[in-house]
């Protein structure tokens, strides 16, 4: 990937400014249709999901009281994992987006909701709703692209340090909720800029630690203790459910913006961006996961990531309904509606993580035949200094130019 | 739902036994970030300790456009005095709406409460309650409130009711004179009451509770003077003296449209008579200027025009506001105005606040009947 502005074939070059504004008008109309028809059925939907989720969680935790018996452990852990996924994805994420604020129910409202997640909802709303959704896929502005620790773009200079990126990414996936908490705190940047003594920052850290303590006490102390002789199996079950939930949500989120072919944008390009241009950026910066109802619910309807990014505050249960209209609009304007089944999108996203962990072009050039030379080159680039790396990169470019 | 901080109100005089205290804390640790109540609500929303709710058990048509809704209130319902109203929160088209309705009965042996609702043209909640509400629906409630109640000492009284304004009065009368199989009961507590009811309605078939009033009249419990606009013409308050010859001896309780109540106020003031009123809605004056309303605590700003209550404008913009009767009566929507000016949409009265001239806490204003008259800073 490279930012859309630097691509030899810019996929939006064929759009006139009038086209872009017309797209905005059409999307506004799609949005208004849903706003005008929001009602009782939608309210009943979210209440039903919350009801099912809570009963599933209670039931699973009840089964885990007997988790000393392996079948109970398996059933309880599976149920709790699903409950935790629902709680974070279809319920928490979407309520915190304000998708359900129109119901004026103080119990299902973005200003009062708290979720089963290391990061307090208040902090997450800022970094996610305000930053990520506004600056989607803008390099240098949208930290969702890499949580500050990843190489997410060819234009980021390669460093041997990035070779470990697939490993980090996997660790980050397992403990994703803590990764998000660190990201919401802008932990890396605050440490680097020596702002850790800032009282505002310390207050936020305290908030996160308190939240983590409560969530951990619940999963790793209170419920195991309730299970008596099943203390350890229950603890293991809760840990497993948390990891399953983390892996799942990490995968869904990778699928949303990371698969090959999803566009990124330069910081400069969003200066004075119009509403139409903002829409187009969301259209090209997101990817959908095709699948059935279960896929949609379990992903919190982020399987409709494109629709979600266009209309982050519309009720999630309505994305499926507008998806065909949005897709038709893509086709009308000859844009790439990026959608694929889950395994394909996950594979594609991981492929990108691996590709960018290596020097530009390395993965593409490597064949079983030239593998020894390529490995030698990688070794040199890894052990040599920046000068060595620049020289090798320059030679690669020359060879590519000559071949072309 | 869930809040991280869950302060539990615990009066100092009744310390909770330590064991229960610990159990509660343990239960909270097991359910965080939710509260134990969030799970209990799934199974028993009307239990003691839950936030106050009720379940609609019966919807009984009264006239073509009015119905009585019988509600089983939650265990913590504290009862009411006839004449009081209850605020009901109900989801209409998925959106939570709150309105006040008079309780139309005395305390009942079965512990249920009832309200009688007349569908007003284009009325969101009244239409829903009269036409679409179904038994089994959960509603949100607040404890009964209101000062429009009978003087305990009784005496000679006049009730003037118009349209659905009969509801609080019927609550009082039913409590005084319960109707059983063999007629109207005369209880000791009603012996000191001498009551005339002047009941006004557009037409006879439109009259809610006419049968009840007639039965009370027939039994000699009250004297009923029924007036129908289509038969008698619109009531002129100066006629009251003819309809009720001993008007001067009576204390008047009136409930009906603003126009009638204002006329009565003028009439009674001129005649030096005592008057108690209950208003269901208010007449609004011309829009003012409008302005930018900033909510200082949550950081949102809202452009409000001079004809829209700040509450409506803020909710339109997605701000979760405290609200109540939405007509300036219950004070459930009061927020402190820090800086700026608002205009009361009913009276045109302007309220101002400034850091120099106002109380440090700001000037509390009712957001439901005040519109911005310039820029406003409101603590919320
Ligand atoms: C203390 C108190 C007690 C009340 N008791 C009763 C009661 O026992 N029975 C009852 O039916 N109502 C009662 N009301 C009125 C009730 O609270 C609602 O205002 C009424 O049902 C209209 O609400 P809505 O949502 O249907 O109308 P809205 O959707 O709020 O308003 C729709 C339209 O109707 C107009 N409108 C609003 N209220 C009224 C009204 N009362 N009469 C005529 N037009 C109106 C509005 O100006 C608007 O144009 C009481 C109000 C108060 C403050």
Automatic annotation (TrEMBL), chain A:
<dbReference type="GO" id="GO:0008610">
    <property type="term" value="P:lipid biosynthetic process"/>
</dbReference>
<dbReference type="InterPro" id="IPR005804">
    <property type="entry name" value="FA_desaturase_dom"/>
</dbReference>
<dbReference type="Pfam" id="PF00487">
    <property type="entry name" value="FA_desaturase"/>
</dbReference>
<feature type="domain" description="Fatty acid desaturase">
    <location>
        <begin position="72"/>
        <end position="339"/>
    </location>
</feature>
<protein>
    <submittedName>
        <fullName>Acyl-CoA desaturase</fullName>
    </submittedName>
</protein>
<dbReference type="GO" id="GO:0016717">
    <property type="term" value="F:oxidoreductase activity, acting on paired donors, with oxidation of a pair of donors resulting in the reduction of molecular oxygen to two molecules of water"/>
</dbReference>
<dbReference type="GO" id="GO:0016020">
    <property type="term" value="C:membrane"/>
</dbReference>
<dbReference type="InterPro" id="IPR012171">
    <property type="entry name" value="Fatty_acid_desaturase"/>
</dbReference>
Automatic annotation (TrEMBL), chain B:
<keyword id="KW-0560">Oxidoreductase</keyword>
<keyword id="KW-0479">Metal-binding</keyword>
<dbReference type="Pfam" id="PF00970">
    <property type="entry name" value="FAD_binding_6"/>
</dbReference>
<dbReference type="InterPro" id="IPR017938">
    <property type="entry name" value="Riboflavin_synthase-like_b-brl"/>
</dbReference>
<dbReference type="InterPro" id="IPR001041">
    <property type="entry name" value="2Fe-2S_ferredoxin-type"/>
</dbReference>
<keyword id="KW-0274">FAD</keyword>
<dbReference type="GO" id="GO:0046872">
    <property type="term" value="F:metal ion binding"/>
</dbReference>
<dbReference type="Pfam" id="PF00111">
    <property type="entry name" value="Fer2"/>
</dbReference>
<keyword id="KW-0001">2Fe-2S</keyword>
<keyword id="KW-0408">Iron</keyword>
<dbReference type="GO" id="GO:0016491">
    <property type="term" value="F:oxidoreductase activity"/>
</dbReference>
<keyword id="KW-0411">Iron-sulfur</keyword>
<dbReference type="InterPro" id="IPR012675">
    <property type="entry name" value="Beta-grasp_dom_sf"/>
</dbReference>
<protein>
    <submittedName>
        <fullName>Ferredoxin reductase</fullName>
    </submittedName>
</protein>
<keyword id="KW-0285">Flavoprotein</keyword>
<dbReference type="InterPro" id="IPR050415">
    <property type="entry name" value="MRET"/>
</dbReference>
<feature type="domain" description="2Fe-2S ferredoxin-type">
    <location>
        <begin position="291"/>
        <end position="380"/>
    </location>
</feature>
<dbReference type="InterPro" id="IPR008333">
    <property type="entry name" value="Cbr1-like_FAD-bd_dom"/>
</dbReference>
<dbReference type="InterPro" id="IPR017927">
    <property type="entry name" value="FAD-bd_FR_type"/>
</dbReference>
<dbReference type="GO" id="GO:0051537">
    <property type="term" value="F:2 iron, 2 sulfur cluster binding"/>
</dbReference>
<dbReference type="InterPro" id="IPR036010">
    <property type="entry name" value="2Fe-2S_ferredoxin-like_sf"/>
</dbReference>
<feature type="domain" description="FAD-binding FR-type">
    <location>
        <begin position="49"/>
        <end position="151"/>
    </location>
</feature>
